[in-house]
Amino acid sequence: MSLIELAQPNQGYSYAFLDAFAKRELRRRILKGIAIPGYQVPYASRELPIARGWGTGGLQVTLSLVGPDDTVKVIDQGADDSVNAANLRRFITRMSGAETTTDANQATIIQSRHRITEEILREGQTLVLQVPNPEPLRRVEPDMAKARILHADADYGQMWLVLYEQLVRFGRYIQGASYPVMVHERFVMAPSPIPRWDTPDLHQSAHLTLLSAGREKRLYAVPPYTNVYPLEFTDVPFEVEDQSEWACRTTGERNKFMNELPQDDGSSVFELSDTGYMEKLVNHQRGEDVTIGTTYYDSEGQFYHDGYLKPRRSRQESPDA
Amino acid sequence: MAYVATKGGEKAIQESEKLYHQLKKPVTPEFVQEIMDTMPYLVDRVMGEGSLYAPELAALALAQSGGDLYEAVLLLRAYRSTQPRLAYAKPITVDDMLTLRRISAAFKDIPGGQVLGPSLDYSHRILDLNILDGIAASEDDEDTQVEAAEKPAATRYPLVADWLRQQGMIAAIDVPEEIDAADIPDVTRDPVMMPAPRAHRLQALARADTGGVLALGYASMRGYGFIHPTVNELRLAYADVQVKHPVTGEPFSAGRVRVSQAEVVTKGKSTYKIGFTATMGWNEVKLIAGATLDMEMSQADPHPALNEDFVLYHTEPIESSGFCIHFKLPHYVTFSSGMDNMRKVINVLYGAAAAGKDADDREVEAEESKTSEVVTKDTM
Hints:
- The structure holds two protein chains of two kinds.
- By secondary structure, chain A is an alpha/beta fold.
- Chain A has a domain at 20-230: 3-Layer(aba) Sandwich (Rossmann fold).
- Helix content of chain A is 24%, strand content 16%.
- Chain A has a seven-stranded mixed sheet.
- The longest helix of chain A has 16 residues, at 20-35.
- Chain B has three domains: 9-80, no CATH class; 94-131 and 154-323, no CATH class; 332-379, no CATH class.
- Chain B has helices at 9-22, 29-38, 40-50, 55-64, 69-80, 160-166, 198-206, 210-224, 284-298, 308-314, 317-326, 332-350, 359-369, 371-379, and strands at 97-103, 230-244, 251-267, 272-280.
- Chain B has a four-stranded antiparallel sheet.
């Protein structure tokens, strides 16, 4: 008898690419992440046939969850047809046989880079966010061992100092995307580089959010119905991007997150960032039978959890008045 | 509209990949064999960084990627990550190595002798243009044939470090009687935590990016570290991969691999300190730089660029190269979120009227009017 005889016959690749040991490890880490909201769980992070930093963290989580009955949506910067989203989607379906969709309501698993859908996700759906840097403290403490101790002690003084210094120097918080949040009143968490527009969507959400950084080998979770608040001083509220003047050139929609598209004459036009949502609006306008879900922000820009976003400071109160 | 948000992105990426391959000759089995035969050091480097000893697959990866080293390493790593673990090889010591080359810079002569073995160290680096003209030296030419020594060299040599230990110059180490290979922490299957177990550190160095290890190691050598690495011993060797037969339990050799290792020493307070790196394949630059970094990382308070966290994270070839090229991906959502802030900051600092002005003029005006003071006062 030889090793070759004892080995399983070569079957190419396992279902959903990852072998059973890798899937088991990931599922256990995910459960731990869900049990401790916002806590970064280290994991081995296998190499995948996709370059590191291109969504391998999210992909490992998706591959460990996906089954043949799932419907998967993959977006990058809000777009379903972005080349990397197309590539990841092609890989997931090739390895798992799962259905794909661009409709956020139809999907059971949504893997996303840097956006949350405009339509409110519901119970039973899983949002998998690709994470480049899982450590919100990186800018104040690049040493991961030391940052871990700060988290253990809930020692976030330096984060507050950063915000304070921003107020002093610029008169406002200048963190753009990946605005740090406090999860379940315990862990400060990097929500991945979603725009501030999407940050409130994580609060008391009906769906499960899993965040995974393949390169940095950390995953973490926001379970359904968990408190998630942006770091903000009580007298200076966190503000989402101000796009209230912008209207989508294709649908005329307002008060959704837009891409700004520079024009030859120096001006800009705007278009919805969420292409799946835009596609449904267009089809609806053409008179097709489309179910459009409720959105996180209504047409007036009001967020669906009343009072979560404090009123934008009026011009009189602003330092530039 | 550029490379995103166009329908048919999927088609575009498929054609793009085809074009990449079309711009080079197709890969043939003969060419893969040729790479193995003519470029063993390149194959070694890819196998080391790919952490998979498979010369044929490494050569295939090189051919398939058109010689893009990071792509080749990624191909090998991605293949490796799907392979089951059938058995654990017995850990080897120097007594198990068939050594071809071992040199020490610390002593003129060493027990067992200096063995130069294969090396380009003392070659004149002159391009052999005759080869291009087809005037190659024939194989049985005296100039190309190695002259056999009168007495064959030994295959096994004692460690120079053992002599230093006998002298009490470096600390003794506890050598366990029996090591179960399955118990050794595995950096490819465990999450890495800092401070890393010694096994993780050495495994991470073994599969680190040669260029990355060199850059940080060289920084230490040039003076950002506290160490002058003396090469106590450098070895190139073959070793048998000893595994236990699954039924009889008898050890047998599953094949022979190229391995290499280096020990460097530096002065400590009362003894010498030792740094170590070993890797699959023969890669001397990586060994000396890696062993230097191993010593640096063990210092009480190393330079920030030479501590364990910094070195191990930043010399990981597929993570560093992957993240670097990921900046080609669209970042327009992140960028627009920042622009929203930038517009408001410009408003706050310079007033709405400044929005259209040239950015450089604005900087100059700001300097002149000492805007920062105003802003501080306004926002308090």
